[in-house]
Design goal:
By secondary structure, the protein is mainly α. The radius of gyration is 31 Å and the shape is flat.
Amino acid sequence: MRGFILRLLGRTGDSGGAGADARTDGDARTDGGTTTQETAVGQSRLTSVLDSEFVRSLPFWLPAALFMGLFVYGAIGWNFVISLTDWSGLQPDPDYGTLGFEMYGQMLSDPTFITAARNTVVLLVAFTAVTLLLGLVLAILVDQQIRFENTLRTIYLLPMSLSFVVTAIFWAWMYNPEIGVINVFLRTVGLGYFAQAWISDPQFKLAAVIFALMWQFSGYCMVVYLAGLRAIPTEQYEAAKTDGASSYRMYRRVIIPQLRASTTSAAVVLMVFALKAFDFLFVLFGPVPGPSADILSVMMFREAFRSTNWAYGSAIATVLFLMALGVIGPYLYLQYTRGDL
């Protein structure tokens, strides 16, 4: 490409030079310069631009950036514009002539939206906190130089490779009130009075979802924390033990504070997955999980594709996007201040 541009410039310079010759009677000019010198200077500058690292890297990232901008950020922007209309029902196209924030005002007076937003926040916080805690405990146990460490790591990490659809089908069977493993186990050990209709009883629905997601992602947290633990110099363990610190005090005062970066990165991933739990709940409960387990992503699907309230569904999707931005934005800023971006 660089050679083609230079050859094209050379032809353009020749034809321009011929015209200049006609105007100035040869290469000589009245100010003492020559057209040949100007062409050489222009080619030199163009060569330096074409040789720059930025221009040479364009073929590698520009096509992907254009597609990303069009199909991701362009779609997000279009979704926001639709949320400002009143598009619903069988209207073939939204009316872009009257834009406003009526849909966002409607949210504040919609008890279904308030309930779904509350459940989303509870799922986000509870799932992240419990999964981080379990992952940390597993990482500390696996870090004790136990036998079959690699096997245990593989077993714990395996659920992470499953899709939400497979996980939902698996846990729908586990939670089955009659033949599910949980209730069968409780009845077998004489604790049948603890057996419940886990995904039918409203008071257990959201907790059942959080427990199933925790099972799927605790192995991921374990691996992240294990990498953080292995990065801490062994001298710090030995110094704490020499000072007489118990194992509990050593981990609480010395080790865990140094896992801040691992905690941050794992928490961001978990919160993003919590916001993307639509397919898990959709497979488990269908489009109407009920007030006790309804979350914003399921409500967005229900409003847009079942009730054909396109604008209202787009407004809910915009709120979900802002929540995701609220999770990822501070993390990216933190990475930027550390010089990691």
